Amino acid sequence: MAGNHVKKDDYKALHQPPGGAGGKGCLWSWYSDYKDAHQCSYRWHAREHALADGRIYNYPAYKDLCVEQSPGPTDVYLTAAYQGPKRKAPSNNYALRNRFPYKNKPRPGQWDVSLPRNFTESFTRPYWHNGHHIIARSVLMDELAAAGKEDARVTDMIVQGLLKASYNLNDKPNMIILPLDRAVARALGLPRHLLGDEMEIHEEIQDRRVADHPDYSRRVRFMLRPVINQYRRLMKQKLDEAHPEPPDALAKEQLVRISETVYRAITAAGPFMKGKSLDELKLSGLGGR
Q1: pLDDT (tens digit, 9 = 90+) per residue, 99-121?
Q2: How many CB atoms within 10 Å of residue 278?
Q3: Contact predicate 37/44, CB 8 Å
Q4: Residue 22's beta-bridge partner residues?
Q5: How far apart (Å, rounded) are the C-alpha atoms in residues 284 and 5?
């Protein structure tokens, strides 16, 4: 008969230390600033992934948008910047002040990931971008909560097992840098991160501020659910023990494989999407419907 006194390990002891020194997992929080070697810094991990796959981001990947010399008055491209109630987004100095919302085209090498200030100082250098979690935190948390719907201990035990396996939601395999400007996405052959962060002359401002990718998240959820259900069955079996103890490390490789599979789908489909958003990426051949 199942016991009601399963021990719960301290999440803090299993989680990354405050300095993000490594060796432990990270599921529900991250370090929002860019910080070298900080294991919870999703922006650092995203840049590390881009450095490892530089063919996607480095010149000549964006040569179609480049100019050979300093850009002249007509060497500009349309950005997703817009005028908000009090300030311009993403920042007051992202687009040209005298030609808002346009921005100067880059020179060869100017956007390369290896340049020290690119993708480290801010989310607008060298262009407006986000570090995208391939398995989104909200998707993982929803599936974990659903696993414990009948018995909340199941959720706690899965979390413990993943942390013991040092699963890190912010780690390099689960991160990718995605642009938010349509022209940049088209030039790089990547989808835009968000449906609403685009700028087209005919579009209304209120239609450009969709800060989510619900269709993409739903497709990833379908890929994630069988793995979480497997974890749930394992934890329920453990709870049937007379004196259930905290679980051993779970196999994190299944989650990592989902991230790697979707990463390949994003980078392969991007050139055919011609600047469309991530929400329009189809994962039907991968179990994502």
Answers
A1: 999 999 999 999 999 999 999 99
A2: 24
A3: yes
A4: none
A5: 42
Give the relative orientation of helices 214-239 and 137-147 as an angle to the nearest 10 degrees: 30
pLDDT for res 66: 97
Residues in the chain: 289
What 3-state class would DSSP assign to 77? strand
Cβ atoms within 10 Å of 125's Cβ, excluding its own? 15
Rounded Cα–Cα distance for residues 6 and 246 (Å):
7
Among 70-74, 118-122, 282-286, name the one with the lowest average pLDDT.
282-286
Q: How confident is the model at residue 2 (pLDDT cuts 50, 70, 90)?
A: very low
The CA distance from 141 to 173, in Å, is 18
The secondary structure of 150-216 as a DSSP string is: S-HHHHHHHHHHHHHTT-BTTSGGGEEEEE-SHHHHHHHT--BS-SS----TTS-GGGG-----HHH
Statement: residue 287 has pLDDT above 90? no
Element (H, E) at 136: none
**Strand, helix or coil at 118?**
coil
